[in-house]
Amino acid sequence: MRIIVDAMGGDNAPESAVTGGALAAQEYGEQVLLVGDPVKIAEILKAKGMENRDDVTIMPASDVVDMHDDPATVLRQKPDSSMAVAFKLLKAGEGDALVSAGNTGALLTGATLYGGRIKGVRRGALAPVMPCAGGQFMLCDAGANTECTAEMLLQFAFLGSLYLEKIGGVARPRVGLVNNGTEDTKGDTLRKEAYALLKAAGDAGRLNFVGNVEGSMAPLGACDVAVCDGFTGNVMLKTIEGVAKFMAGEIKGVFMRNLATKLGYLACKKGMDEFRGLFDQDRVGGAPFLGIAKPVIKAHGSSNEIAVKNAVRQAIAYTKSGMIDEVRKNIEYMTVKAAE
Questions:
Q1: Domain with CATH 3.40.718.10 in the chain
Q2: pLDDT 10s per residue in the chain (340 long)?
Q3: What CATH number is given for 123-282 in this structure?
Q4: What is the sign of the dihedral through the CA atoms of 44, 45, 49 and 52?
Q5: Domain 1-121+291-321 superfamily per CATH
Q6: Could you tell me if 230 and 141 are in contact, meaning their C-beta atoms sit under 8 angstroms apart?
Q7: Are 312 and 32 in contact (CB under 8 A)?
């Protein structure tokens, strides 16, 4: 298997992407293609003692997609950027999956143009996994599509559910629709139409639909897949991250007040480390773009080498899972006509 890594994408590139990609090749026994400035990549590999590796190949690219570039046009304007070259390799079959910590919008554009959507899927969805009481939940969509139809939300539900079944090992994932109340009459027109479609799919036994969930309920473990439009999902994602950072800072402040509280911290340090670990993005690696015909993983922009390594692990698992074929088998159930 060959995993393509955009070596120039992300805040800490190229060092984090190059080192993480090489570590992944070594640990997981798969081929990694590092796309970017060949001189810089070679220098980093040499500095890390990772040069002359049979499982790492450097693929030259002379340009870089910046975080401020226009996502809709940048891949055409910068055809020799590391991201554009990476997608061309993916489209040509030179690699089985792609990992990048670069511009999210450009990555979605490239995934759609070069990877292509699975036939019948209306839009690809960004689907990060978030910590919650008792485990994790998947947020789908978390920012790829700010305007959605009810049918798209139905498809996000299927995509998230199949991903957790095939890759997360979750039997019959509970699907909830993010709404401003739990009653089936709540929400705007989009939410009401989506609720009807999801309930029909649930009644038919195709989804384990548990109804509406409020934003506060998902972190408390109310569902395994939280379905929403990308605008709502992105606000929810950033709010959870912000609250987590705020709470961690406040708790640290409590423990640092005086000598007695500092001693108390030492007594519960293990528990505090575990708490911080719940929100450690590096452990997860990245978020998949669901609905795309080839695996594309978006690592967060500030990824270090451990995060990139884990994103490659995620890409390997996605490729081996057979999830994309499973979506194709179930696409007939993911339409308004089938749900009615």
A1: 1-121+291-321, 123-282
A2: 999 999 999 999 999 999 999 999 999 999 999 999 999 999 999 999 998 889 999 999 999 998 888 988 999 999 999 999 999 999 999 999 999 999 988 999 999 999 899 999 999 999 999 999 988 999 999 989 999 999 999 999 999 999 999 999 999 999 999 999 999 899 999 999 999 999 999 999 999 999 999 999 999 999 999 999 999 999 999 998 888 889 888 888 888 888 888 888 888 878 777 777 666 676 777 899 999 999 999 998 889 999 999 999 999 999 999 999 999 999 998 987 755 5
A3: 3.40.718.10
A4: negative
A5: Isopropylmalate Dehydrogenase (3.40.718.10)
A6: yes
A7: yes
